[in-house]
Amino acid sequence: MLVYPQLSSGALAQFPILKRRRQRTVVNTLADFTSIKLADPPGEITAWELKYVGLSNSEALALQQFFTATEGSLTVFTFLDPTANLLSWTEQLTNAVWALDPFLSIVAGVADPAGGTSGWQISNSGAAPQTISQTLSAPGAYVYCLSVYGKSSQPAQVTLLCGTASVVCTLDTSWNRLVLTGSGDPTAQSVVFGIQVPPGATVDIFGLQVEPQAAASVYKPSETGGVYENASFRDDVFLLTSTDVNRNSATVNIIHANSL
Amino acid sequence: MAEIEQFFVDNQGSFGSFAFTDPWDGQAYPNCSLASDELDLTSTAEMRGAVSLRIVENRS
Q1: Among A61, A143, A182, B31, who pairs with B58 as Cys (CB 3.0-4.6 Å)?
Q2: Residue partners of A101: CB distance under 8 A and separation at least 6
């Protein structure tokens, strides 16, 4: 699959980033001036304007080659929203998008570090490590950052899983943010992200987040995730400006339509 | 920003309706909608962004 390239830093975009959400509502205005509205979900469009400055020649070349590979706006590709949490339903770990091993039990409503009650308590009653995970249809070769807040009333460790990378983290009695940066199998078209809980352990977690970059940003609750398959360039023109030696700038417009 | 974006998506743009309390005078309006099917979100830096919404009261 074609995948929009990351920069050499692992970032996918530079600030400022403009994201445009467009819905379509069909309105029928009647003779008495009352109206009937109907939502039209296939008409939903999401668009991004990414402005790059100071790109190295190799980064600019990668963008240019990618634009050539897609033949401008003709061919669709997978785009990971740089402003979004790639995971979906991060506040509902009982949703079907989450895969829970059989001996894991989860309880909602735990006080979270943001002052709410969106935390979850996870208990492993089995004799082997158990995992809660979500699989994203995202490129394995990307750099990802998995982050989650965790704590435990008893000494406990959890293992963060981010593609082929993993790290064991010790939990404290207070909330701490655990972070793991890694990639998946470079040839794979999906990546698994999750948390492995050791036998007999009970831990509290909050704010699961995956981003297509090397470090974690502030937690963003997510329902729909940030993986956009079938995105495309909006334009058939790619304008690249050389501003200095090994310095280039470009503006890229990407669009995703539900109807495609 | 993420919550406003999710609110916009949940309302399907101008289709959905919701209750809104006017921040100027505290008056509650039980039936309102977003005025536009379009939402622009500008991220200017980490934890910095700008977004604008227009809310209209539905009267039938």
Answers
A1: B31
A2: A126, A130, A131, A132
Q: pLDDT tens digits for A24-60? A: 999 999 998 888 999 999 999 999 999 999 999 999 9
Q: In chain B, which residues have their Cβ closer than 8 Å to the Cβ of A18? A: 40-43
pTM higher than 0.90: yes
What homologous superfamily does CATH list for A99-211? Galactose-binding domain-like (2.60.120.260)
Q: Do B8 and A23 touch (CB under 8 A)?
A: yes
Domain count, chain B: 1
Distance from CA of B23 to the nearest CA of A (A): 23
CB A57 within 8 Å of CB A240: no
Q: Is A132 helix (H, G, I), strand (E, B) or coil?
A: strand
Q: Domains of chain A: which residue ranges?
A: 17-83+228-257, 99-211
The ipTM, to two decimals, is 0.93
Is the Cβ pair B13, A218 closer than 8 Å?
no
